[in-house]
Amino acid sequence: MIQLLITLFVYFVSFTDKPEKTAPQLSPRAIEQRRKWNIPTDEMDYPVSGMYLSQLRAKGIKVYHVSRWFNGATVEMDEETAVSLKKLNFVKSVEMTRDDSEHDAYLSRRKISAVTNITSEDMQAMAMQSDKQLALYNLLPLHEAGYHGQGILITMCDGGFMDVDKLSCFRQKQELGHFDFTDDGDDFYGESGAHGLYCLSLVSGKTDEYTGAATEADYYLMRSEESEPESPKEMDNLVAALEKADSLGTNVFSVSLGYSLFDNEEWTLEYNMLNGKTTRASRAATIAARKGMLVCVSAGNDGNKPWHYISSPADADSVLTVGAVTTDSVIGDFSSFGPSADGRIKPEVCAVGVRAAVLGVNGQVTHGNGTSFAAPLMAGLAATLWSALPDENAMQIRERIIRSADRYGNPDRDQYGYGIPDAYAAYLGRTATMNETPVSKRSVKYIRGNNLYIDCNSKTYDILGRTR
Question: Residues 294, 348: contact at Cβ < 8 Å?
């Protein structure tokens, strides 16, 4: 007997309308925050028609995600079924988003920042680095005042969170849950990779030698990045994560992923498409911002490559796109370039992403390079600032951060954007000017163990004035 091999592809199916106006799919926390900040319910908040989804499933179509914001669904089916689906009166469009016939593992690796193992001799220096990277944007005064992100809900969206459920440095009680929007079969906390672990440590990690930027914020973990292939379906995974975060009442959303090059070159983005309005991922990030979230996105690691621009969703409007600098305020050559295709400043701000101190799979301090690490540092800054100013909304917090940045009066349109924010100045509502001393030149005091240290002019001094 001859068996025919039927090839399945992934598509995004858009529907014409939402005939069933049932209650918005929002948690009590999300509803309360919408009320607090006067964010009205609209058509996007209503669920997709269950009747339409039932008709898809009746045809043997596998439904991965349902998008209320884009009134559609990410599904798997063969080409013949896709053609027949276009004829249904409630189907607006059918768009292929993943072709599994080929893949290039390099494309997935290129956007995932790597971490380098360090020797025991370097361990103490890297632990010191964790304070220096917070001192760079003057976050320590807020920590000393008792603000560490309390009451703020963060969602970390990434590719893998290996052993996060086991490592005590993450104090699992503050993880409220996790969601996997990929179709990878591996365990969420298993061999899916440690990139998410590194990023989470910058926000929530805490040991005797290391402190994240917002260690008392609660958080959800979400996985949207698939191991292979590299396709627009991953952007729809990210859309699903953003919508879920919105429904949960997330305040700060951190994503260290970006999309521009795909295995199928027909889907590869051109620079003129990076206008915040082309991809669903970028449009969803903007919608999330309109719904009350502060979205922090890594700028990308292509600054020293032929494609040296930001990617999607870094081009989204109303988010904070974050470039990577050293603790001496020098931009990383790999940090991707802006502006967006429609001329907006991108990245808006920068944080440490060159030799950033992170916690590794063993819970010890190590370091890595990538804007992947700058974005969660900025998310942690935002969460800590917001915990000090709980009555302000996401756009007010975003504006405070941007206005405090050291290049606000004279922004760079390539890699720095408005520069490096000053968290304490943002808290005070101060605006940086062209003549203001850059963050890296200011003196910042902090305590490690029983010793007082001062960071000034990119050097560290003890209380006797000796350099370290």
Answer: no
**Token pair recorded at residue 314:** 């870094």
3-class DSSP string for 330-399: CECCCCCECCCCCCCCCCCEEEECCCEEEECCCCCEEEECCHHHHHHHHHHHHHHHHHHCCCCCHHHHHH
Burial label for 168, CB within 10 Å (0-12, 13-18, 19+), is exposed
Per-residue pLDDT tens for 98-123?
Answer: 986 665 555 555 555 556 555 455 65
Query: 238: which residues sit within 8 A by CB, 6+ positions away?
Result: 157, 181, 224, 255, 257, 281, 284, 313
Q: Classify the phi-psi angles of 276: left when phi > 0, otherwise alpha if psi is within -120 to 50, otherwise beta.
A: left
The residue among 317, 342, 344, 332 whose CA lies nearest residue 415 is 332
Close Cβ partners of 450 (under 8 Å, ≥ 6 residues apart): none
Closest CA to 15 of 59, 60, 51, 61: 51
User: Which amino acid, one-letter code, is at 84?
Assistant: S
Tell me the C-alpha distance between 206 and 102, whole Å: 42
Q: What topology does CATH give the domain 112-444?
A: Rossmann fold (3.40.50)
Cis (ω within 30 of 0) for the bond into 376? no
What are the sequence ranges of the domains in the chain? Answer: 8-98, 112-444
Distance CA 323, CA 48 (A): 36
The sheet that has 8-15: what strands, in order across it? 62-67, 72-78, 8-15, 91-98
pTM comes to: 0.89
The 10 Å Cβ neighbour count of residue 143 is 19
**Where are the strands (E) in 190-319, listed by range?**
218-223, 252-255, 294-298
State what percent of residues in the chain have pLDDT above 90: 70
Cα 139 from Cα 365, distance rounded (Å):
20
Answer whether 335's CB lies under 8 Å from 299's CB: yes
Domain 8-98 sits in CATH at 3.30.70.80
Element (H, E) at 419: none
Q: What is the largest CA-CA distance in the chain?
A: 86
Q: Give the whole-angstrom CA distance, residue 287 versus residue 242.
A: 9
Q: What is the pLDDT of residues 264-285, one digit of tens each?
A: 888 999 999 999 999 999 999 9
**Separation CA 387–CA 154 (nearest Å):** 12
